[in-house]
Specification:
mainly beta; globular; 0% helix
């Protein structure tokens, strides 16, 4: 079983600019994991379904396909 502690989390300050290309990433916000993507117009990370900005992101990880 994979849990949040087994995900290779990186501090948000280390996120490369090339991830701001619309791909979905995994974020840690406040106290839970969230899926998010970069919103170029608002210059922030948003949850892709609700389109709410993620405001307290502390860590990130790539979403890797099964394999």
């Amino acid at each position: 079983m994979i849990t949040a502690k087994h995900i290779p989390w990186e501090p948000i300050a280390t996120l490369p600019d090339d991830r701001k290309d619309g791909r979905r990433l995994l974020f840690w916000e406040t106290d839970c994991p969230m899926i998010g993507q970069w919103d170029q117009d608002r210059q922030g990370w948003e949850e892709p379904v609700s389109m709410q900005l993620l405001e307290e992101v502390t860590h990130w990880a790539d979403i890797n396909p099964p394999g």
